[in-house]
Task: inverse folding
């Protein structure tokens, strides 16, 4: 691998499999556990196989230990992600979930939400709801939804969703890698000549 000139560690992508937390007679949550975790595994595999850091190594991806249906599980996921150095989160779900209980509220992470377009419990409702909640709280999030309806047990990622996930992943890794870094004289004064000052606000934005 190429020698890394980056001071500090590379950003990690964290996958958050969110789920309908209702248990009981209907066994709603129980019926969705495998499907939800499979979405997380598919997304992780896609990132690991297609996104690399500037030194050529594959991106590191971690998945929450359990699906996230309630506040306690969301907190446990956040704690794990802090220990793993996660800077980017992708929340995935095939169903309705309790939005403000399951969303990523860390203001420092770069966020995306993938709602599965399925035959049985389309993730569109949760996607619209949780993106609205993100907007209310001033937390930018990138929404991902497929054009075509898929079978509930389909573990493959549609081509358009794959493209959106990878576009987000690559942009997020680049942005997180550059966050807080110094790039020598970019945006400064060359040889003390005031007329050659580059506006630092423009470069940073």
Result:
């Amino acid at each position: 691998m190429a020698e890394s000139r980056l001071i500090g560690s590379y950003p990690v992508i964290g996958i958050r499999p969110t789920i309908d937390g209702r248990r009981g007679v209907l066994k709603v949550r129980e019926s969705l556990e495998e499907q939800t975790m499979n979405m997380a595994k598919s997304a992780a595999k896609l990132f690991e196989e297609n996104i690399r850091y500037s030194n050529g190594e594959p991106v590191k991806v971690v998945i929450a230990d359990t699906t996230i249906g309630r506040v306690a599980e969301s907190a446990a996921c956040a704690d794990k992600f802090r220990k793993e150095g996660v800077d980017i989160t992708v929340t995935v779900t095939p169903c309705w979930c309790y939005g403000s209980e399951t969303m990523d509220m860390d203001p420092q992470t770069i966020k995306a939400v993938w709602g599965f377009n399925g035959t049985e419990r389309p993730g569109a409702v949760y996607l619209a709801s949780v993106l609205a909640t993100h907007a209310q709280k001033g937390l930018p999030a990138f929404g991902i939804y497929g054009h075509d309806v898929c079978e509930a047990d389909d573990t493959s990622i549609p081509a358009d969703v794959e493209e959106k996930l990878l576009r987000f992943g690559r942009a997020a890794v680049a942005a997180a890698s550059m966050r807080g870094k110094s790039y020598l004289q970019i945006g400064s004064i060359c040889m003390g000549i005031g007329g050659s000052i580059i506006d630092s606000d423009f470069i940073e934005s």
